[in-house]
């Protein structure tokens, strides 16, 4: 069963509970090359953990910003179950 929600068609609610929740997002893989002769096993998307700020996504991994800046182009997301 596929529980990934496409973004921006679906968005988390703009509530405090949604902003406290943990999310996993799929962003385009910067290393994916769509050309003949390249390995087809390279994933099209990259998995990142993120926070929902009410109007945009924020990457949790500081290394992401060191390498890619503020371009956080989320294509799909899923909310993780509560750990409490």
Alpha carbon gap, first and last residue: 25 Å
Radius of gyration: 14 Å
Total helices: the number is 2
Please tell me the overall pLDDT.
Answer: 82
Per DSSP, what share of the residues sits in E-state strands of 2 or more residues?
25-35%
**Strand order in space, largest sheet:** 1-5-2-3-4
State the order of secondary-structure elements, H for helix, E for strand.
Answer: EHEEEHE
Any overview of this molecule?
The chain is α+β, with helices and mostly antiparallel strands. The protein is 14% helix and 27% strand. It is built from two helices and five strands. β3 and β4 form a beta hairpin. It is globular.
Tell me briefly what this model is:
By secondary structure, this protein is of the alpha+beta class. It has two helices and five strands, in the order βαβββαβ.
Topology at a glance:
Elements lengths: L4 E2 L9 H5 L2 E6 L16 E8 L4 E3 L2 H7 L7 E4 L5
Antiparallel strand pairs: 1-5, 2-3, 2-5, 3-4
List the keywords.
five-stranded antiparallel β-sheet; 2 helices; alpha+beta; 84 residues; 5 strands; single chain
């Amino acid at each position: 069963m596929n529980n990934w929600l496409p973004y921006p068609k679906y968005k988390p609610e703009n509530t405090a509970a949604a902003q406290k929740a943990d999310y996993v997002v799929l962003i385009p893989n910067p290393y994916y090359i769509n050309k003949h002769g390249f390995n087809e096993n390279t994933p099209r998307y990259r998995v990142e953990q993120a926070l929902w700020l009410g109007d945009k996504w924020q990457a949790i991994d500081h290394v992401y910003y060191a390498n890619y800046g503020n371009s956080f182009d989320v294509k799909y997301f899923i909310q993780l179950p509560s750990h409490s």
